[in-house]
Model the fold of this input.
Amino acid sequence: MNVGVRELRDTLSRRLAEVREGHTITVTDHGRAVARIVPVDGPTRLEQLIAEGLARPANTSKQQAPPPIRTQGTVSDLIDDQRR
Done:
């Protein structure tokens, strides 16, 4: 369902009730889609794609960043040293 910004502002309570019922509302500005209001309890687009078999979750978890390297001086000094 497409709704213009002005109409959304004027009928916000009614539109939010529609979203609570499960509808998705696309907000338009001068006829161009600018936002989408979706129910919070529904699955995300990624969850939908996984359920449909069109996507699969990552098979590894994110790795932690290595510990920072302790050094003397500034980054600019380090770069200057490497350029010599």
